[in-house]
Design goal:
Number of strands: 20
Structural class: alpha/beta
Distance between the termini: 36 Å
CATH architecture of the largest domain: 3-Layer(aba) Sandwich
Number of domains: 3
Shape: globular
CATH class of the largest domain: Alpha Beta
CATH topology of the largest domain: Rossmann fold
CATH superfamily of the largest domain: Thiamin diphosphate (ThDP)-binding fold, Pyr/PP domains
Radius of gyration: 24 Å
Length: 579
Amino acid sequence: MDDPPGHEMPSYRPAAARTGRARHNYPHRLSVAEAIVAVLEDEQVPFVAGIPGGGVVELLDVMSRAGSPRYVLVRHEQVAVHMALGYAELTARPAVVLVSRAPGASNAVIGVQAAWAEGSPLVLISSHVSSKARGLGAFQEIDLESLFRPITKMSVEVRAPERVTGTLQEAFRVATEGRPGPVHVSVPLDFPAIEVAFALSRPSREVHGRLEPSPAGLERAVALLAACDRPVIIAGGGVTKSGAAEAVLELAEELGAAVTNTWERKAVREDYPLATGGIGRGGSGASAAVLHEADLVLALGTRFSEPATEDYAMAFEAGQSLVQVDIDAATVGRVYPAEVGIAADARAAVLAILERLRGRRDRKLRTAWRERVAELVKGWQEEIYAVDFDAHPISSPRVVRDLRRVMAPDGVLCSDSGNFNYFLARYFTATSPGIFLYPAATGPMGCALPAAMGVKVAFPDRQVVAVAGDGGFAMTMQDLETCVRERIAVVALVMNNFAYGNIKLRQQVHFGNRLIGCELSNPDFAEVARLVGARGETVRDPDELVPSLQRALSAHEPFVLDVHVDPDEMSSATVDPWW
């Protein structure tokens, strides 16, 4: 089976080998700034995002003269990193974030920690104080190497000009090998102008291909899968990153297994008959039911996070077997003991399991289990759709339902963090893999718009919608101007209830309705959009939703829809038990 578009398994190969094109014939000696840009060109970096500063402008000058990579000036370093994260999540390839020393680098931390938790490859290049002033308490001097070490796969300060080229090449390899993630390289202020001998060479530890499962682990897993009666598959982020979604559904069909997605992931499409929806906080009741009734659970590419397990309330009982597959061996068996643990790429493992299952003669149809799964899904669907979609003010389920109806099947939705997110989980049915993006491992507010920008750069012909609450949208809405200037035609849909919804709900339920620091006085977001040159509309009537959404999705320019939803209607998933 071929990888679906945009989900090729990341493996570190020379850029020339990826495309078949020859490398440039660079001079034997270059300035460090020229050498850095040459590496970025060789790696076919799609864009460099950031804000200028000391040690950055030298690189910008070289990129301008070279004509590549594309430089995207943003209004905050957080936006640059989340933009790179959005690009990486849908392409498995790293973009580059370029920031100045302490203030600029520190502003990037929130995005880098999200990329670290998500396993998203990106390369952060920061400037640093001059090597001659290092350790003297120079202007804006902090230990950047140590700052980023806990939230990157590699954080290094280059100590010699001639080491810059090799270090950057190693950074791209590390970012994409195994479980992907961010890397950080800092370059002292006095290095860019220094001339060095230059040559492009691959790191000696170049890695090819997938991490294959062990034969012994496969045989034990297949034996359990063949013998079970009520199998359930949990598909996590590793399924998306390895391009395993279609193979997972083939395996589900072979087994008659229910398929759940992990919390806010939507790794496999949810219109599949055996798909039961998400697990965890605010998850599907059908998913909770099948997991309670299962005799075997196959967990693929999931770390069993706190929200995915509803604060670790989810448990496997006696008589339930767990087979866990993850590319990170340290993850396997960490939260729940696994009867069989396999450290491998999800797609490689699923294809190997399928091959072995199809060769067995003791295949079970599991008709009764298939019927039970369908019954549970039907009951859950009837429960969540028993709401008043015509209510005034506009209900959040109505917004999400109408968005799903008018949005293209391959359109990408980038979600921010907030109470509205639980409505997206329930009512936005994923019709293909990889179209729902949310950094669920960290849930940073303000991530949706910049992530959508990165996705739109990768796929300019696809519909890309950023859905955010009013609180999250206001954190990064300044970069609507970036969208206009760079002609990044994303749609920003603001679920505006004039509050931090999750906080408000908790205070209502647990703190005697004493509301402190949760209610907001917002500007007219549609007018804000128009002020920076984007288009904007305010929607207050449910019957206006579809026409407004259609205008926004068909526009070839940035578009903000400020949808005023019922401020008294919030998802109780924040406080209600799922498990």
